[in-house]
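#struct-help
A.M.: can someone run this one for me? Single chain, 317 residues.
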Amino acid sequence: MTITRRAVALGLAATAIQALMLIAFAWPAVNISPRDLPIAVAGPASAQVAQQLRQRDPDAFEITTVADAEEARSAMVDNEIYGAIVTGNGAPQVLVASAASPAVAQQLTAVAQQLSGVAAAPVHDVIAIDPDDQRGAGFGSMVLPLVMSGMAAGVLLTLLIPAFGARFAGLAAFGIAGGLLSTLIFHTWLSILPGSYLELAAIAGLASFSVAAVIGRPGIGIGALAMLLIGNPFSAATSAPELLPQPWGTIGQALPPGAAASLLRSVAYFDGAGAIAPLAVLLAWAAGGVALLGVGALRSRQTSAPTAAPEPVAVPA
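D.P.: on it. Structure tokens below:
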């Protein structure tokens, strides 16, 4: 293949990547809609409200009937539901948790207004998002830098540091220092998330480490594309997994960016409720990356090990 043909092929490959990136980032954004979104209904007209919701869209909500507003609030604090519609005493009362998802809170408010026919249905934000980031834009902007920096660290350490021990030390240094510094920015300076600085720093560091660890020499391109084209746009950092097209919303939570976003929300706003699943995902990716790193080191040693010289064969005189 001539240099010109190679250049054209690379240009076409870059065009294909550009198209994939456009689809990956734009398609979820224009298909935001509730899909089995867990909510609760309460009060004397709860059965009627649940029936109306199912008639509007049978697949939109996963509806749980609770006794009253207090039970609904308890379920929201435990990070089990996104909100509730409480009937009785006039127009339905809407309970939301903007900390879980500002987008869901807006949609639940709109649905309650349509059901009641009241222009401004009473809305109570049980677990409010940080006042310095009321729309959640700052929180959503945190995911891409963690992914990009993790990819960059993984690529640089893979290409420049061949030894297992030294590369692991670099990954550990990146995870610890990156977690502390990034949290110093979004927690202290920008005030995007409340909560314990060290806990948030540990999560950010683990997320960065898990992304960097899986970027090995054989899978630099595949790993980077998976994190960038699937992990980031389907992380649900700006929405909620149940608002994304399925199964991509679920797949996004099985990758480090989505798991990190869910874990940060859980620790910052819900006192760790619902943290086990995303924490297990991050730990699994980190452990898998370290294991692959070790396998690569063993193969490298076996390849570079000198072979024993064959014994001389005696030739009869």
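A.M.: thanks! The beta strands are 37-42, 61-66, 83-86, 93-96, 123-125.
D.P.: also worth noting: The two ends are 56 Å apart (CA to CA).
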